[in-house]
Amino acid sequence: MNDIVFPPAALEPLTRERARAARPVTAGILVSGRGSNMEALLRAVAAGCLSAHVAVVVSDNPEAPALGKARRYGVETVVADRRAYPDRTAQEGAVASALMVRGVELVLLAGYMRLLRGPLLAAYPGRILNIHPALLPAFPGLHAQRQALDHGAKVAGCTVHFVDAGTDMGPIVLQAAVPVLEDDTEETLAARILVAEHRLYPAAVQLYAEGRLVLEGRRVRILPPPRDRSSRPD
């Protein structure tokens, strides 16, 4: 069964022509695990269908499978092992420094399992995106798919949102709804939601690169596409 995406702007095809029309945004991706959403983004970039240059992939976990995947795409990787720093602020400061020295403009969380509290939020206000496997504000935090099943939800899904100091509480950019089937387990539901995630995250990044995401308090307004697909305003 197909997912349903909101708003319809996310359904605009990611094409090479569209990607060429916008100035590529320099992005950094933060990961902690396998990095399937990271890989979806890197595939779109490699195909020439996403206006982005991924300058670095940073992980707090030196054993993260995502690091090897990133290197296979020719992307530089950096490890900021949480165990090597005295506290969260020091570790996050190291991550922020790794991003800034590489000219990163947009930070993309892709299964990064640490809450952001200080240096990164200060360095990149309104420039950090995350994807969460639920229709926020419902089911924030860990095990969102299990939460949906435990609550008897008939519809689940995923959300791309800007990151703030809350847990999955930032302004919502895009959402995709996925039906919950009668025989769903946490694993089967998660697998179907993941398919939607891999479509939704590149779509949100492309909208950002095109300068079409406008933060207005807790709301995100999506501007219509430019008639001439001109470059993202500086």
UniProtKB/TrEMBL annotation:
Enzyme Commission number(s) of this protein: 2.1.2.2
Taxonomic superkingdom: Bacteria
Sites where the protein binds N(1)-(5-phospho-beta-D-ribosyl)glycinamide: 35-37
This protein's pathway: Purine metabolism; IMP biosynthesis via de novo pathway; N(2)-formyl-N(1)-(5-phospho-D-ribosyl)glycinamide from N(1)-(5-phospho-D-ribosyl)glycinamide (10-formyl THF route): step 1/1
Coiled-coil residue windows:
none
Which HAMAP family does the protein's record reference? PurN
Q: What is this protein called?
A: Phosphoribosylglycinamide formyltransferase
Print the organism lineage.
Bacteria, Bacillati, Bacillota, Clostridia, Eubacteriales
